Structure formats: structure tokens, C-alpha cells
Amino acid sequence: MMTTNQSRRLSLKAGAAMLGAGLSSLAAFAADAGVLKLALVESLSGPFANTGEAVLRNIAWAVERVNARGGTVKLQLQRYDSKGQNEEALSALRAAIDDGARVILQGNSSATASALIDAINKHNEREPDKRVLFLNYSAVEPSLTNERCSFWHFRFDAHANMRIAALMDVIREDKALKGVYLIGQDYSFGQAVLREAREQLAAQRPDVKVLAQELHPMGRVKDFAPYAVKIKASGAQAVITGNWGNDLTLLVKAARDVGFDGRFYTFYGNALGAPAALGDAGVGKVIAVADWLPNVQTADSEAFYRSFRTRFPKPQDDYVHMRMQLMIEALAQASERAQTTHDVVAIARRLEEVDVTLYGQRGRMRAADHQFQQNLVVGMMEKVGTPGVKFDVEGSGYGFRVIREIPAAKAEQPTTCRMARPA
Q1: Which segments constitute the Leucine-binding protein domain (predicted)?
Q2: 202 with 182: CB under 8 angstroms?
Q3: Separation of alpha carbons 131 and 344, rounded Å
Q4: Do 180 and 281 lie in a common domain?
Q5: Are strands 133-136 and 398-406 parallel, antiparallel or unpaired?
Q6: Is residue 219 part of a domain?
Q7: Do 117 and 150 touch, CB atoms closer than 8 A?
Q8: Average pLDDT over residues 79-97
Q9: What pLDDT digit, counting tens, does each position of 121-177 carry?
């Protein structure tokens, strides 16, 4: 039986233990208070796994750079496999929120982005204490920052209409062009690209005929030879396509194999196997629009590219996008200025006014629709060593010479967004 003094000592020990546990919890909370959890939701398996892994390298590198600076906000990146399916992406979203993520990152597929926007809008209304932001680096279907704009969604890539307008700067001067073949993936983005291409061609090159327009299943076509045969038989001098990933690589391979000798005006022809697939057949014929290209002729641009290649030296890992770096820089800047990692409304309001520069590339967020505004460039595929082509792509021996630079003020387009904002 314990004496009164023994009981008192035991009570004091228990109290000290509880206080210690409490202080440890407070210390852990204080440490965690400076951590902003990011969830990358992408195809990390399946037919588009290469695109997801390529994005992961970019985002991870950007997070490493921000954290190495030692600011008051630390970024923590977690990855979730959507397997290229919208339902899987929505499951990943729920898991990420349960794991404490406050920022969702996604971009490869406008259909998935659309599903995430709807789900996040509903979640944020239903659970205001667990609100999340959605940062989009590649889903470029125009309505996402127009009639379907959301306070919780920020797009850091130029949307499809902006990219088509940049390509039109080159198409206007392509006097040999008499007929084009439009082909794309059969979902909202692919449909938007073909629709906008027709409209801008009619307005700016009414002399050019659209000889055919075709949509194909996304990620399910293994043999593009039948499409390539039709492209060649149409007599078109050029193809306009928004295809990406394997759907682009297999298309250009098939076109080469059937002897198609025309140009490809692309959104993504500068990476993920497309240059190697075309080989010499693509020299002077494959044109791509981007926010940045490795052969932009500035010292800052070269330093940026060399820094990435130092971090990821394998040729097959050569897939770097400036906009993804600017996106993470913008998020870090907004969180620092908002002085919070948990109040996403405060972070969003700072993101609306963000203006960032990295290695000479500048971008700003337009608050009206959350569409990032930045310079765009158009490049022509050439052999490495050609004037203007210092760097090749993925060790292929082919790179992209910058043939057009479009300043942000010219690339900017009006918006129909009527954004509902939280009180």
C-alpha cells in the first residue's frame, strides 16, 4: 500500500510525463506548422507512366530547390498514382486530403483536371477546415479558366487557344501550306484543339483547307498506321495535333514509316520520344510550342538547363519544363507572404498577385481567371550542332531551334471567367 508521499511523487511523475508529452506534441505541431504538404496526382503506371514520372522529376527538383533556400515554409511532396483513370485520380485526391495535403498538383489530362476541379469545389464547400488548392501545370482545355473557372484552381500552362495562336504566328508565314490534317485525342482537350485550329485557320489563313478532322481513343491505339495512311493520302502538307505522350510518339513514328513528308505543328513534339521517333524525317518539319525551350539563347536559360541535367544526368530523363519550376516558386512565394501553410484561402489570395522570375523567365498570375501569363516560344526540330541548336533532346541528336518568341502581353487572351470567391 502506497504512503501519501509515494502517491504524491507518483502523481508528480505522471504530471511531468503528461507535460513532457504535451510539450513534445506542441513542438511537433510547431515544426509541422511550417510544412506545406503537396500531393502529385498523376499516371505513374499504365500507358502514360512516362509522362507522370517525367513530371515527378520536375516537381521534386523544384521542391528541393525551394527547401534548400531555408525559408520559413518547407514543402513536402507526396506522390499518388492515378493510373490514367479519373476514378483513380478522385480516390487519390481523397487519400491525399486524408494524409494532410493542402495543395494538389496535376496536369496530364484535362479530363482528369476537370474531375478534380468539380471534386475540390464540392469538398471545399463541405469541409472548410480541410480546404485544398489545385495547381495545374499542363491541363490546357480552355474552359478550365473560362466558363468553368474556380477560385481553388490555378493554371500555370498556356491554354490550348493561346498555344494555337502561337503556332499561327508561324503558320501565317508558311506559304507552301495549302491543306492540313487535324488529328487529336478524343476527349475535351483534343476536341478543343481541333475546334480552335479550325477557327483560327479560318480567320488567319482562309486559303488553307482543312482536308480532314479526326479524333481517336486516348491511350488505347497501339498501331497508328491506318491514321498515317489517311494523312498521307489526304495530300496535306501539315498535321496539327495536340497529342501527347505515347499517342504522339506512335503517331509520328507511323507517319515516318508510311513516308509522310509534311510538317507537324504540335503542342508537345519536343519531348518524350517524338524527336528520336522521327529522326532525320523530322528535321525542319516538326514544330512545337512551349513556355520555354533548352535552346533559348540566353546565359540564364543555359544555366537553368545545365542545372537540371546535372541533377538528372540520364538522357532518358531529359524532360524539363520551366513552368513547373515557376509554379513551385509561386507557391512558395505565396505561402511565405501569407505566413501560413494551412490557410489555403490566404495562400490563394497571395497566389492571385504572384509575380515570379527564375533564370530570367518571368510569369505572373492573372487574378481574374487564375491563368498564368508568360512568354511562349515556338521551335523547329533540327540536328544538334545546327546554328541555334546547342542542346539535343533525350540524347536523340535532335533539338529545337527557337524560331518565334511571343511576349506574354501578346500571348494573353481575354477570359469569360465569372469567379465566385469565398467571403
Answers
A1: 36-382
A2: no
A3: 7
A4: yes
A5: unpaired
A6: yes
A7: yes
A8: 97
A9: 999 999 999 999 999 999 999 999 999 999 999 999 999 999 999 999 999 999 999
Which pLDDT does position 277 carry in this prediction? 84
Structural domain contains residue 408 = no
Q: Are residues 184 and 273 in the same domain?
A: yes
- Give the helix ranges, DSSP H, for 211-273: 225-234, 246-258
pTM, to two decimals: 0.88
Grid coordinates representing 323 are 513552368
- Expressed as residue numbers, the domain containing 115 is 32-158+318-374
Backbone φ and ψ of 260, nearest 5°: -65, 130
Residues 37 and 153 in one domain: yes
Using only C-alpha atoms, the chain has a radius of gyration, in whole angstroms, of: 24
Instruction: Quote the cell numbers at residue 246.
Output: 505515347
Question: Which whole-number Å values give the CA distances from 347 to 36, 139, 266, 271, 344, in the listed order?
Answer: 11, 22, 35, 33, 5
The cell numbers describing 163, all together, are 498555344
How far is Cα 100 from Cα 106, in angstroms, rounded to an integer? 17
Q: How far is CA 219 from CA 63, 227, 273, in A?
A: 30, 15, 15
C-alpha–C-alpha distance, residues 253 and 269, integer Å: 12
What is the CATH number for 369?
3.40.50.2300
303 in any annotated domain: no
Share of the chain above pLDDT 90, in %: 83
Of 18-27, 46-55, 237-246, 364-373, which gets the smallest average pLDDT? 18-27
Give me the amino acid identity at 119: A
Strands 286-290 and 355-358: unpaired
Q: Are residues 50 and 126 in the same domain?
A: yes
Distance between first and last Cα of the chain: 62
The Cα 247–Cα 295 span in angstroms is: 25
Residue 42 φ/ψ, nearest 5 degrees: -150, 165
223 C-beta neighbours (distance < 10 Å), count: 9
- 342 closest CA partner among 132, 31, 99: 132
Based on the domain organization, do 48 and 136 belong to the same domain?
yes
Question: Residue 305: is its pLDDT beyond 90?
Answer: yes
Number of structural domains found in the chain: 2
Q: Quick one: which of 393, 396, 394, 397 has its CA closest to 384?
A: 397
22: which 3 cell numbers? 504535451
For 8, other C-beta atoms within 10 Å of its C-beta total 11
